[in-house]
Design goal:
Number of strands: 16
Oligomer: single chain
Order of helices and strands: HEEEEEEEEEEEEEEEEHHHHHH
Largest sheet: 11 strands, parallel
Radius of gyration: 25 Å
Strand order of the largest sheet: 1-2-3-4-5-7-9-11-13-15-16
Number of helices: 7
Distance between the termini: 53 Å
């Protein structure tokens, strides 16, 4: 199950990349959008109904209500929609999130999905693995590597080149015509009596155990593990910032110390306007790509804010006046690392810690905005922007 949970986490993270921009791309949106000319670039499109009849010689990013992909995609295919049908072939990975997802074509890479209904139709060939979190899934096609997922129900009729490892809430059915070349491992409320001739490897059934104490311990362990991983990731970012952007960190402290309340207010207003603005852009179809990009920037800001807060707290532990550059960066890193650890510990305290986290979070966002504003004003004074 640990491997399964890890893979699902990776899949959700990968789906988050739906909103990531690329260096060279074409954007287009409309209420009804039909693409009938070949695209020699990465392509971002959004609309109420989207039909892609032409080939895309790059990555394809699609958001909409009813989406049909008839053409071939050379790179990755990333989709967020209500009803999604993929009939063309894909040269790399497919990442989809939506209400009803159907794949008729073939892909050379992995397929990662999250949604209500997933159908891998007969004749479809997935060159990599299928990772899914779905309400229900019907697999009639061929998966050349593994199937990993957590689903409400699953019916397996097709061929799997390696292993199947799934957690099922309700029903798990493996037909007699299905072929699993490797092992089958499934977690469910009860044994589903899998046909032995359909699985060439081992069949392992794990019954769901609702032991409240073990569940609580598992949740607590997962939470601690998540926080530890988050802290280590933040330390890596701190290391990069202290090496390449130590001046920016120092300036952020100066801004906060000038007026803490003002910094908090700027952070609060920034988050409110950012989220409201992104939602407004998402409602207007033309603004969907910009709205998605804004949400990504806000997410990045929420993660970076704790580092700027830790830098401010670290300023009370060390003198920020530079002497030897290398020694200063080393002292700065360890001071921020210590302050960041204290920040994580205190903010984990129920109620009081959460309230403190909300306040410090806004201060961190505010300090980031003020530093960026100061940098922009300097560039403007030099007539560089």
């Amino acid at each position: 199950m640990k491997k399964l949970i890890s893979m699902l986490a990776i899949s959700l993270l990968a789906m988050g990349l739906l909103a990531m921009p690329v260096n060279a791309a074409t954007f287009k949106s409309a209420e009804t959008l039909i693409v009938d000319q070949p695209i020699n670039d990465d392509y971002y499109i959004a609309g109420g109904e989207v039909i892609v009849d032409a080939d895309v010689n790059g990555d394809l990013f699609v958001a909409g209500g009813n989406i049909t992909i008839n053409g071939n995609v050379l790179g990755d295919l990333m989709i967020a929609g209500g009803q999604v049908t993929v009939k063309g072939n894909v040269g790399d990975d497919i990442r989809m999130i939506g209400g009803q997802l159907s794949i008729y074509g073939s892909t050379k890479g992995d397929v990662l999905t999250s949604g209500g209904q997933l159908n891998i139709e007969k004749g479809a060939i997935i060159g990599g693995s299928l990772v899914t979190g779905s309400g229900s899934a019907v697999i009639d096609g061929e998966i050349q590597k593994d199937i990993l997922g957590a689903v409400g129900s699953m019916r397996l009729n097709g061929k799997v080149g390696r292993n199947v490892e799934v957690a099922v809430d309700k029903i798990f059915m493996v037909s007699e015509k299905a072929v699993v070349t490797g092992n089958l491992k499934y977690t469910a409320l009860q044994d589903m009596k899998v046909p032995k001739q359909a699985v060439k490897g081992k069949i392992e059934f794990n019954k769901v155990d609702f032991n409240k104490e073990e569940a609580a311990e598992g949740i607590a362990g997962a939470y601690v593990g998540y926080k530890a991983a988050s802290y280590l990731a933040a330390l890596f970012i701190v290391l990069l910032l202290t090496i390449f952007c130590s001046n920016m960190l120092v300036k952020s402290v100066e801004q906060v110390k000038k007026n803490v309340l003002k910094t908090f207010g700027i952070g609060l207003v920034t988050m409110i306007l950012g989220f409201v603005g992104s939602l407004i852009l998402m409602v207007t179809l033309i603004g969907i790509p910009v709205g998605l990009m804004l949400l990504v920037l806000l997410f990045m800001a929420t993660y970076l804010s704790k580092i700027f807060v830790a830098t401010w707290l670290a300023s009370y532990l060390m003198d920020f006046k530079k002497t030897n550059a290398k020694r200063f960066r080393l002292k700065l890193f360890f001071a921020i690392a210590g302050a960041l650890l204290a920040y994580y510990i205190v903010c984990a305290i129920p109620v009081l810690g959460w309230m403190l986290n909300a306040i410090l979070f806004m201060i961190g966002i505010g300090s980031m905005v003020m530093v960026k504003k100061e940098g922009f004003m300097i560039l403007r004074s030099k007539k560089m922007v």
